[in-house]
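Quick entry between incubations.
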Amino acid sequence: MSFHAGDTVRILRRDVAGHHRVPGYVMDRVGVVTEVLGPEAVPEEAALGHAAPARVPVYRVRLDQTSLWPRYEGPSHDTLEIEVHQHWLAPADGPDPVRPET
Amino acid sequence: MNVPQSRPHDLGGSPAGPVDQAPHEIPFREQRIDAMVNLMRTKGVISDWAELRAGIEALTPEEYEQLGYYERWAIVAAEIAVRRKLVTREELDARIRHLAEKAS
Amino acid sequence: MARDHSHSPPRPDHPPPQTRHRFLDLALNELLIERGLYTEAELRDMIASIDSVDPSTHGARVVARSWIDADFRRRLLNDANAAIADIGMDPGTAQLRVLENTPETHNVVVCTLCSCYPRALLGRPPAWYRDREYRARVVREPRAVLAEFGLSLAEEQTVRVHDSTAELRFLVLPERPAGTGHLAESELAGLVTRDGMIGVAKR
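Done. Structure below.
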């Protein structure tokens, strides 16, 4: 499923062996797409030396720092941006699920 | 059996102390590794930087912590060179022993 | 049989790990040159080419130009690779984005998964950029890390951290300091630091 700038998305939590580009701290978190890039090579395939890896859109996603870190020390307007390949995103309509304190 | 992969490189948010801002001159050895790996990439031996990253990420947490930044590169570059049949493990081991004897 | 065994070459012992780590890179480099993958001269040229990129002559020049040339600044923010090529510099192969610092927003760049860095403009990353401490903390407590670097930001200013783990490489465009209207481009470039272009310093 593809997304557009302004869409609210959830970054998926998936247990993938091998290389991928999604840091654990953004998994299961919700942000807003700010830019659409690509299509670019799927890192999971490129890492295996595939000559012609599949290509997917990549989205720049902006997240609120206070949604990433329950005890974030700065103001609520601080943000973090990260690029996420399409297969790691889902639409997010509802609020963040309850998470353990980190 | 589904053991979650250890991800020693996935550092965002993990506990850590102050940033050591002291300037570090890069030794010639590290410059050479940097250039060697970049040549392997421009010559197509490394097909994508993701391949190098995947190798680094597959190191054990102990290796990842103990090895220098460019030492990690060198280990993975050697694995890729063996996989691409540019060199064999035996040739590498023999050359390492030869260099070690010369240096002692 | 014992006789056959004595005639076969001794099986090379695997070098112990410390020896292996110490000499592996040199051994590999020698073998790659012997196999003809590249020459000694190509290796020297590659080292020189990497060494030739310096924040003061590359990134700082781009920043200074953007401070005096509004049209260049617009193009830089819109398509950094093209704008940089237009002034005769090599933007590298990665897609670049230039992040504009303003009185409202301060940008800072990290790669938490490895050490992605705008090498075409800033050269090799400093050791701290690759180290655990910066990568672990600047996403979780950017204001504390920036304070360690001597940069204290007002609550009103938004801190925007960019985790550069995928396709894009980022250059922070610091604000032009006040009172520098009389300076030429090369003098302005002298005010711009590597740390300012990573986002851990004001400029």
